[in-house]
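Hey, I was hoping to borrow your eyes for a little while. For a while now I've been wondering how a particular protein folds. The fold is given in discrete form, as structure tokens running alongside the sequence. Could you read through the record and tell me how the tokens relate to the sequence? Take your time with it, there's no hurry, and the full record follows here:
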Amino acid sequence: MIEHDLWFSLLRISESTKLALLKKLNSAEAVWNYSRDNGWLLSGDKNEVKIKSKISGASNEKEIESVKKIVFNNEIKLVSYNDPSFPERLKLYADCPGILFYKGDPEKLNKRKNAAVVGSRSCTAYGRSAAAAISRDLCRCGINVVSGLAKGIDGAAHKSALANGGYTCGVLGCGLDVVYPRENIHLYNEMFRNGCVISEFIPGTRPAAFNFPKRNRIISGLSDVVIVVEAGEKSGSLITARMALDQNKSVFAVPGSIFSDRSSGANKLVRDGANIYTDLSDLSACLSLNFNIINGGGSTFSGELQSLIFDHLSEKPMHIDEIINITHIDIKQLYELLFELQLDNRILCLPGNHYIRAANE
């Protein structure tokens, strides 16, 4: 029953204790029954007696009903540790949440590889384009994209995944009924229709600062690799990277300008031993990638990207930065495609890295 799951989520005990109870008793309802049966002890040691005494008195029916109303009004669902659709990767860790709240379809997290794409909220055009290109390429190889649904890099990664027909999961640092930041409400709604949004926090929980480091362990825990796109020295994405390393995950960082404060954290990750991300082939040792898919079997996919670029060009010169922002094509690949279009006499390159359609087009 949902009342038992909500009661269990509201318990003021550690995640490790909650997890131990669920592992031994298999459900929140069984934990409830255990807490109410004075004669039922699992081991009888003093610590268990203390824990049982604490949870037996935890029955705030008014609070449970309040949260239950939010859950039903917002069409929020719950998944427990012992449910088959619970994210399997999270079960590897002692601080795994016992119950997750979600909207959308979380089961695909167990069916395919997952990659976290994270970075600064206050990102540059370079960082946003890099995140979009990485997310696009991951989705075209059948890799799920996980991020934190924040503005900046997170939002760019989620949007690109959806735009390219991929699956993406957003992990919140607040309750699922709280859209934060508010500007992401349209992205939020699209994600639970074409991906999922999850949180370990009780509905109604506000986005307090101390929630986000806790949230970050879920992002890294769900993922097979973590890619830091752009991050300052105090960026929360560096916490995600550290947690990933603690979880024995591979961490990649996109190198940025040495003159940009927003890349200083990512650059230091590289200096301290993180893998450098330049293109999707860098992940080949960590993920089983079908490069035939991303290359489109050769000329077909290349032709589609050429058309995408060409359709946005006109007789008015367009700078390469603007082309990147519009197409979200990786700059290395973009230069190759622009060169191919010039060889075909379809476009011209003007001084200052500007491009126009050729006169005969």
User: Anything to note?
Assistant: Residues 125-140 form the longest helix (16 residues). Confidence is low (pLDDT under 50) at residues 293-300. The first strand starts at residue 77 and ends at 80. The two ends are 66 Å apart (CA to CA).
